[in-house]
């Protein structure tokens, strides 16, 4: 048997704010939500019955990229046009981007995407495996998703 990612769980500081972002801006469907003592949680999906992302309101502060743990969370889109649609929606929501616009994963790469932060500062990526030829690469030698 080969292991596959079942879902990704993120600690968040404000479940309502994170739900608005992941559901309303990125388009995830709310599958279920609940409460345990003073902690709330939500399961989000992509149209199927299984969760893709779980949000746990139990963080005291925002994401800290200097600590061991999650580096970034990457999503794959089905086309460059769809990545650009996400970029437009994210800009309208006032999201902070790590790089300006669509960028290549590395110099000369056909793959690439957009790199940004959720409301708690968690680093996120939406990319495509091809179709980004000629886009700038923020880092010539290292993968773009490595240093943001």
SSE blueprint:
Layout: E1 8-12, H1 15-25, E2 29-36, E3 39-45, E4 53-57, E5 73-76, H2 80-92, E6 103-104, E7 112-117, E8 123-128
Parallel strand pairs: 1-4, 5-8
Antiparallel strand pairs: 2-3, 3-4, 6-7, 7-8
Q: Which features would summarize this protein structure in a list?
A:
148 residues
Q: Any overview of this molecule?
A:
With 148 residues, the protein is an alpha/beta fold. Helix content is 16%, strand content 29%. It has helices spanning 15-25, 80-92; strands at residues 8-12, 29-36, 39-45, 53-57, 73-76, 103-104, 112-117, 123-128. The strands form two sheets. A four-stranded mixed β-sheet has the order 1-4-3-2, with helices on one face. A four-stranded mixed β-sheet has the order 5-8-7-6, with helices on one face. The longest helix is centred in the middle third of the chain and has 13 residues, at 80-92. The radius of gyration is 16 Å and the shape is globular. The mean pLDDT is 94.
What's the total helix number?
2
Structural class, from helix and strand content? alpha/beta
The poorly predicted ranges are: none
Rg calc: 16 Å
What is the N-to-C succession of helices and strands? EHEEEEHEEE
Overall pLDDT score? 94
Strand content: 25-35%
Number of strands: 8
Helical percentage: 10-25%
Task: Report how far the terminal alpha carbons are from each other.
Answer: 34 Å
The best one-word shape is: globular
Largest sheet: 4 strands, mixed
- Report strand order across the widest sheet: 1-4-3-2
């Amino acid at each position: 048997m080969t292991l596959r990612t079942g879902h990704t769980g993120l600690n968040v500081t404000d479940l309502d704010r994170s739900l608005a972002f992941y559901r309303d801006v990125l388009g995830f469907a709310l599958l279920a939500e609940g409460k345990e003592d003073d902690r709330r949680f939500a399961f989000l999906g992509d149209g199927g019955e299984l969760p893709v992302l779980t949000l746990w309101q139990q963080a005291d502060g925002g994401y800290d990229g200097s600590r061991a743990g999650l580096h970034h969370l990457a999503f794959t889109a089905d086309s460059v046009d769809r990545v650009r649609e996400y970029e437009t929606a994210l800009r309208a929501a006032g999201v902070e981007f790590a790089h300006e616009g669509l960028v290549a994963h590395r110099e000369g790469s056909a793959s690439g995407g957009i790199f940004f932060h959720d409301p708690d500062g968690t680093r996120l990526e939406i990319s495509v495996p091809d179709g980004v030829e000629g886009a700038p690469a923020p880092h010539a030698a290292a993968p773009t998703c490595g240093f943001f």
